[in-house]
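Query structure, 190 tokens:
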């Protein structure tokens, strides 16, 4: 009975942590600067704008699932540039009135590159915070209560059994390893 109460308590704690981690989103994300080819671009994901030399370009990014990403950029004069990336392949085009060279605007492929820098390592990348918290929680659980961890993993299959000292030691070692991996993941996400 005590074992079941502890298990339920751990489930409630983990679900609470996952819920709080799931509240993060693009809302409230601060604009950031990207330097590309000697120019500084200010990207505001929330507003969907890129600003360079006082010119504001509107963009919309959408996903069609998998690795497919659509980018649609609208220039101040109303012309458009669009690009679709499917995995490692891409294709795109522009409206008939698109001519950034004569208008003094930044070409669409450069704006695509500026937006791509965030996802290719120049911005925030790394393991999810949910993964880090999960690994940390499981690691701590295995260290604090190796017997319960063993019972949840193996003991429920048998009647009236106890784990060996080796099994308990292995559970603790796995817990230490999971904590170590979660710390590495946390450092990688910074």
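Result returned for the query:
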């Amino acid at each position: 009975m005590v074992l079941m109460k502890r298990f339920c308590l751990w489930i409630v704690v983990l679900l609470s942590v996952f819920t709080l981690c799931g509240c993060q989103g693009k809302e409230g994300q601060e604009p950031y600067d990207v330097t590309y080819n000697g120019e500084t671009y200010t990207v505001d994901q929330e507003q969907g704008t890129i600003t360079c030399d006082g010119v504001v370009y509107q963009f919309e990014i959408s996903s069609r699932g998998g690795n497919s990403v659509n980018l649609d950029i609208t220039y101040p004069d109303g012309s458009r540039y669009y690009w679709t990336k499917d995995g490692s392949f891409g294709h795109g085009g522009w409206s008939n009135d698109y001519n950034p060279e004569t208008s003094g605007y930044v070409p669409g492929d450069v704006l695509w590159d500026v937006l791509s820098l965030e996802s290719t390592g120049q911005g925030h990348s790394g393991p999810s915070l949910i993964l880090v918290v999960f690994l940390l929680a499981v690691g701590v659980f295995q260290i604090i209560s190796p017997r319960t961890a063993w019972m949840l993993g193996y003991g429920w299959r048998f009647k009236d059994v106890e784990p060996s000292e080796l099994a308990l030691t292995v559970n603790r070692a796995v817990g230490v390893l999971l904590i170590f991996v979660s710390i590495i993941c946390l450092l990688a996400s910074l």
